[in-house]
Amino acid sequence: MLEVSATLWCSAAVGTLAGLGFVVPFITTLAMVSANVILRPLASKINKQNHSSEEEIPVCYKIQVTCLD
Hints:
It is built from two helices and no strands. The protein has helices at 2-20, 23-47.
């Protein structure tokens, strides 16, 4: 789901930069959007791999917060 929101934000940046006339940032942002679109199938393939052989290890975190006046 994260790659979908990243693609939407990059698409908005492409439109904004193109509308404002910024050429170099527009090309860079367009490259990012292209990378998101091209790499999405690879990410889906990695996420579908079978991870059943790995055992889940329970993890416990302890957080202590101290507020100073």
